[in-house]
Every structure is written in structure tokens, then in C-alpha cells.
Amino acid sequence: MVADLSQLVKAYDVRGVVPDQWDESLAELFGSAFVQVTAADAIVIGHDMRPTSPGLSRAFARGAAARGADVTLIGLCSTDQLYYASGALDLPGAMFTASHNPAQYNGIKMCRAGAAPVGQDTGLAEIRTLVEQWSEGAPRPAAATTPGTITERDTLTDYASHLLGLVDLTAIRPLKVVVDAGNGMGGHTVPTVFDGLPLDLVPMYFELDGTFPHHEANPLDPKNIVDLQARVLAEGADLGLAFDGDADRCFVVDERGAGVSPSAITALVAARELARNGGRGIVIHNLITSSSVPEVVRENGGTPVRTRVGHSFIKAEMAGHGAIFGGEHSAHYYFRDFWNADTGMLAALHVLAALGGQQKPLSELVAEYDRYTGSGEINSTVADQTASLTKVKKAYGTREDITFDDLDGLTVTAPDWWFNLRASNTEPLLRLNVEAGDEKTMTAVRDEVLGLIRG
Q1: Smallest Cα–Cα separation from 11: which of 117, 110, 124, 107?
Q2: What structural domains and CATH numbers belong to the chain?
Q3: Which residues form the Alpha-D-phosphohexomutase alpha/beta/alpha domain (predicted)?
Q4: 428-442: average pLDDT
Q5: Catalytic residue selected from 53, 99, 263, 290
Q6: How far apart are CA 187 and CA 50, in angstroms?
Q7: What are the start-end ranges of the H helices in 138-215?
Q8: Is 291 an active-site residue?
Q9: Which tens digit of pLDDT belongs to each residue from 113-132?
């Protein structure tokens, strides 16, 4: 098929509707292009539970093998399980998933050996160019004299063992935990990772079903954790965990059924990772995580490093600084001991270890890491992003106690509040995040900025 790759190839991955925007013939071209750009002689491929994933992943494998690369298929897996395989086997990898997108979507997340990201600036643009040319009829390179082999391998047990080797859960008190897998890959990984731990597991929506019959597998949207919150209360559970479709993100609910801020989880895990490393180390956080995060990092002997929003920036900073941990407001958590890649499962294990290692309920445990009031991300449609940003900066420019920075959009900081206003790369939107010491101040700043944007 001749595809519009401008709609298909995003900043960090490939994602679109099957078969309208792409199909197995195009997946085969992506496999060939991936091998050419990475110069790989062997790769590893995994896929999620979407109905189209097995066929697309095998087509990609055929394209890669035709170029001479040996292919290891690990079958059904979470995205962080694919990262594990890429790291442990030291091979470039491809994961077939569209994360939390609706059932008709599918996509590819690609990485180099050791789970190093492939994005627009690290190979994805070249892959897109090759696929575009070949799909339009340009001659493809000759097939390899000796095609690569395609073999299958199960990595789930090894993945679980690796994670459990990074967090000591042997001495925790028994915990009752409700897990909402959202019919996604958490239903595949959680039973194996949690096996043998002192946990009373209450599973929700563990059946693998890429049509998502119960709710969208995106736990950052409050409506998608309503079932989990109710079940935690009904069961009298100690906590709840919700995974997204490809199970690389994890969202936490406390014993009262209240959602725990991903920034609080970032701070909690940062403190634990710093303790593991003798009270030293660099922790990466994006600029819209809570101010609690750098405060907790410093209090525990670490050095916080602030970066732009987006996993490619976090991973680059992790590698560049030799950081031990990184976290984002979107519930992505990155670990040096997991090849700088993100794994919600490892963050979940840290929460279980922290909770089970003492007697307080989760709400009290995380209170010390959740010090401020945040607005969450608020989107506004605007006609001119640059003009709106200029208007807001001008409105605050006359105040003496305010500082500005433009690391990612516009960040305005006062002694007792801050906000960040960023332009979407793909839509005519501005994204606002506000944080303050109390609800009243946060609301006032939020409403003032929204009035300037929308007025």
C-alpha cells in the first residue's frame, strides 16, 4: 500500500489505524528499513493483545529476515518486557502496540540494542524515508544471500526475575492489592511477577482483549480508574494498581480509593533508589512534575536534573548524566538498572515494598511526598499558540517576584506557585499545568492564566 507516513510516523513511534493507514505489507517494509538503519544482524520482536498484532509483528519479522537479520519472537509481552529482552539479549527491538489507543489502532515502538530509544532524531526519520520510498515503488535493496532465521523464545519468567532482583519484597507484611489490567498486557505479566509474593491479589479485567470491553486502558484519565477505586474500597484493600494497555505505565490508588499523584510516586521511588545507592545519585524529572520531586531528591542526598517533557528527553538525560532514576507526571518511570528504560512494573514493586515495609496506610506513607496542590494538565484550543504564549508572558512580566524560563514552553515561577504553558506539537492546543502551596492559590492562578488564554 502507498501510505501517508506523515500521519503514521510520530515523534517516538509508529501509530495508526489498521488497515486504513497501514497493514502487514507496510509492516514488512518497516522490518526491512529497521534492519538497514540499525545495521542489525539480529533483532527481537514482541507484541500486545490487539487482534492485528500477531500478523503485523510476523510481517515485520519477514522483512527483517529477508535483509539477513536473525529474528527472535518473544510473542505476547508488555512494552517493558520487550525492553528487558532488548537489554538482556543486547539486541535492537520492536514492540507492536498502540498503548491505550482504541482497538482499530496499532503501532511499533522501536529501540536499539540495550533498549536505547529510536525516535525522530535517532533513526526513525531515516526509517520513515526508506519505507516511504519503497511503498511508492522505489527499488528495494537486494535480499540477503542468506536470509535470517525466525525463532521463538519466552522471556516472561526471566523478566520477572530481573525485576524482583532489583527490589527486596521478602520481608514485607501481607498486602491486599487490587490490580486493574484494563484487558491489557498487565493481565499477562502481573500473575508471573507477583507469584510467590505475600500478596492477596484481586484481579480486574485480566482477560487479554484488544477491544477493551470495560474501559479505555489509560489510567491517567480519571474515568478509567473509577472501577478500581470502587473495588479497592469494596475489598478493603491496601492499595490498587492500574496499568495501561501495553503495561509500561502504572497508576496507584490508595486505601481510601484516592489516586496517588505520579509525582508522589516519583519522589517515593527516588528516595528508595537513592538509599539503594548510598544516598548519592542523579534523578531526572520533567519540568511539570511537582516541586516535591527535586525537594525529596535533595533531602535524600541526590541531585535533581530537570528536563523537557517526553520519554526521548528523559532517556537521553538518564544516559548523559548516568542517572539512577527518572520520573514523569504521566506515570512513566525510568531506571538505570533497567537500561534507562521505563517500567511501570518496577515502580509498582517499589510501592509494594515501601508500603509493606512499615505499618502506615498508603495515604499516610505518600503524604510526605505529596506536598503541593496541582491542577493536572488542562488543554485549551487556541488560534495562535505563539501569540497566546507572548500574551501570558507579557501579563506576568511586570511582577518583580516572578522568574521565567523557556526550557519547554513557558514556565512562570513565583515564591508560592508556578505554572507551565506548552504548545502541543500535533494539535492547536496549549497545555497548562499549575502548582501551588494550597488549593485557593492554585485555583486563582489557574483561572487567571486560562482567562488570558481563552479570553
Answers
A1: 124
A2: 5-154 (3.40.120.10), 158-260 (3.40.120.10), 267-343+351-367 (3.40.120.10), 373-454 (3.30.310.50)
A3: 7-135, 158-257, 267-372
A4: 97
A5: 99
A6: 13
A7: 156-164, 186-194
A8: no
A9: 999 999 999 999 999 999 99
